[in-house]
Amino acid sequence: MTNSDKNDNNETEIKKEWSDLQIPRIKMDSLSYSEFFNEYIQSNKPCIISDVTKNWPANSEWVDQCKNEPNFKNLNVIYGDALVPVVDCNFDGDQNCCKRTMLFSEFINYWENRNEEKGLSLVSYLKDWHLRKQRPCDPFYSVPEYFTSDWLNEYSLDREIDDYMFVYMGPKGSWTPFHADVFKSFSWSANVVGKKRWLLFPPGEEKQFLDSFGNFPSDIQKHLNNNVLYYEVIQNTGEGIFVPSGWYHQVFNEEDTISINHNWVNRCNIEFMWRSLIDNLHSVEDEIKEFNSTDGWSEHCQLMLQALFGMNIDDFANFIQHIADKRLHSIETGISVSFGQPTFRKIHILRDLKTINNILNSIVIEISRRNLQNFDLKSIYKKIENINKLF
Ligand SMILES: O=C(O)CCC(=O)C(=O)O
Ligand SMILES: [Fe+2]
Hints:
Elements: H1 3-19, E1 25-27, H2 33-42, E2 47-50, H3 57-62, E3 63-64, E4 69-70, H4 72-79, E5 83-88, E6 100-103, H5 104-116, E7 124-129, H6 131-134, H7 151-159, E8 165-170, E9 175-179, E10 186-193, E11 196-201, E12 231-235, E13 240-243, E14 248-253, E15 257-264, H8 270-287, H9 297-309, H10 313-333, H11 346-370, H12 377-388
Helix pairs in contact: 4-5, 8-9, 10-11, 10-12, 11-12
Bound molecules: 2-oxoglutaric acid (AKG) and fe (ii) ion.
């Protein structure tokens, strides 16, 4: 059997596994936390969940409940003076290239006028707004329990660095190009108002869309055919969607829509994140391999990795060690760890630590292999030893 036969067989098996999948619609609280954890988070499978926005203050403050549409006036009163990031959906390419900052009142003015004069062809989309960070005292939503095992935002909040918690506001017709999420993270998204249409592709399906430069098309709709396995699902007001790690997706606002979106990582996908970081590092190393005998080459690769991936080995090691320290401390003192509600049980924390230990061991291997300086390997070894003592 040739390697390519093996790959074909693998791909056929992956296809078979996914082709039986239906994207389930479940009711919030109809599954226990551990059932949800096992069936979706651990299995890396998508689902739609109803009623996730129940009791969010945003429902009454941001939505005209009679018309079931955004309450533009009230939004303007509350946030008019905020600065917000906006992209242009007419731009055929990476929308992030044309992101600009404007006053929220300007955006609302555009949105309301667009709805009144239906002819306005410009489609602007307010994306990746760190509203929670901008207004920490405004409790406009709370994280649904199913999504609370979130190391990425736990770390970002503890360290007061940029988090991965966003508000999206888009007129009907706005959309997000084909992509997989940062760091191969999970995402969840909940519609405060409006309707989104999602195209979701199981891991591996995206490969057939790569062009000869290694780029993906922004709009995948033109490239779909009978050989492509994908799911199309509608997310209505009040519903949340769980987007698994490494699943490419494209998203369309079918009506004026406001959503809350988080990217998140925990013990179920931390390995994907770490693998993805190392894959990116290999690409960087390969790209400048002709200079690898130059002084500081490995450190330079780390700088490039930072720019390309958003984190280098040092950043990642700090992140994991912080998560490890908190959990070790929790086991020692009995003081629990939480991100939102509820707090995690001891068994959850111990399982986190088991995964963390595997990752710490891999980090040591990658640092040693490259002889990277400025790493406190002793402190990593100490953590590994302390975690080993628990098992
Ligand atoms: O809602 C959108 O436009 C994009 C959301 C998304 O890509 C995500 O939540 O991962
Ligand atoms: Fe996404």
